[in-house]
Fold this protein.
Amino acid sequence: MAHQARPRIREKTPSNIIPPPPAPIVSKFGAGPADVKFWVSNNQVQSSTASAAAAEKLDGRKGKAKVESSSASSSSKTSPTSDPSGSFTTVAEYFLKKYQINTDPTLPVVNVGTGGKPSYLPAEACVIAPGQVSQAKSSPEQTDRMMRFAIRPPYANATSIGQYSPGILGLLPGQQPHLTVDTRMITVPGRVLGFPTIKYRGGEDDPRAKMYPTASWNMENVHRAPLKFSDGASLRSWHILIVELGDPNRGKTSKRWIVLRNPYDPELEVRLEEVEEEVCLIVLPQVDDVLYKRIKLVADTRLGLCTICVDATKLTTKGEKYMANVALKFNLKLGGINQKDRW
């Protein structure tokens, strides 16, 4: 058998490969400039997003700038000639020493990088450009105003378009030297669809048993007429739970009253587990989308409990009209049929 030479393998670690710098240290969620530390190399050759943004703000330059300096950033790329020695410094210390910017320790830093390569700036070095689309979730009040604006009648939209759109688009007479635009809206033929007659049990001939021209399911004054749900459901038992937000140690607490620290208080699930009745009427202190979703998550997906949430303010101010609409919810959730329509 002929002798076979074994391949020789030589392993060598290049001396010019420098390990990446340590990742920034963030002590807590929403940390301020004094609570975020990043690595500063002695040679200071790492690219700095923080320095570029600060220099751009201080010098008034436009566009992106690249500054060879230490940074409040984490990078996986290091120069072959970088000095691995260095130390940690806080964002507050860095910007005070480098740019003489006194930072507010109560304001959180802003990550202008990515999750894998974060780059932190203090709030004082950030300028938000106007006209940007906000990615934040709208508050319940903002959502309510948006919905009210979206359901405006056609004539209100037409008035707004005719009054404001030409000026916004720069189409007013004289704004475009070689262009003339008719600011009047185009008129097209159309027709209005009729609305159905709403039938209640025992009240088909009652004029109030109709859908209003405004296309709203309004139960106002129905309770005073001999009108009943088309198919009424039976309610054997029900429970009421009044919810407040605040300090549980200083609030009222009973079987029907609970004070939560916040919408995610685990006491909410404990209380809902104790409900043995068929339906639970929950009175909320105000319109709170977070608290409402939390209740529905626990009751619907974990406990299988039928819940109906009402606003305490509307419950005390809207009167019988609001009560009648709450009754619609009760009947539907219990399997009944509120009204039948006839075209």
Q: What stands out?
A: The first helix runs from residue 49 to 59. The mean pLDDT is 78. The first strand starts at residue 25 and ends at 26.
